[in-house]
Amino acid sequence: MSPETLETLVAYIEEQRAAVRAAGTGKEGYNAAAEYAKNIAEAAFNFASSDAGLSGFQAGWASLHLFAKLRGVEGPMAVLEAERFLYPQHGTVFHMAGKLNEDWTPWLAKEARRLMAEHPERGVAAEVWAHWERLAARDAGDAS
């Protein structure tokens, strides 16, 4: 849904609200509520993007930052589209995972050191502490 006016957006929101209320509280209502939230967020995002005259790049940037905000992501992130790996110019998923590991190693090492300083060793599971130690010991040249 890409409403062209604020009035159209408000009408769409009211339509979605009515639909989710009609769905009730059972399984159908549970699923409808999630769909309702997604539909309204998408329509509002599309309206705001169009209203502000965003380029595709700007809209992409905004959508990724919105996703990160909604998911509580504070560090680096990636969104991978599996279908891209069907074409050779994108390499393989294994190549991409290795590249992300390499790119994120400095952040992971720094974050692991921060977490170790904030939590006493007994404050987390032994396996978690050992993992943090391995991450903290890495440097930019060691992405293994």
Can you offer a commentary on this structure?
By secondary structure, this protein is mostly helical. The chain has 2 domains: 6-73, no CATH class; 83-136, no CATH class. Helix content is 67%, strand content 0%. The protein is built from 5 helices and no strands. It has helices spanning 6-23, 27-52, 56-71, 93-118, 126-136. The mean pLDDT is 87.
State which percent range the strand residues make up: under 5%
* Structural class estimated from helices and strands: mainly alpha
Please, what is the average pLDDT? 87
Shape: extended
Uncertain residue ranges: none
**What is the rounded distance between the termini?**
44 Å
- List the helices and strands in order: HHHHH
Itemize the secondary structure elements and their pairings.
Blueprint: H1 6-23, H2 27-52, H3 56-71, H4 93-118, H5 126-136
Helix pairs in contact: 1-2, 4-5
Question: Which key phrases capture this entry?
Answer:
144 residues; single chain; mainly alpha; 2 domains
Question: Quick gist of this model?
Answer:
The protein has 144 residues and is mostly helical.
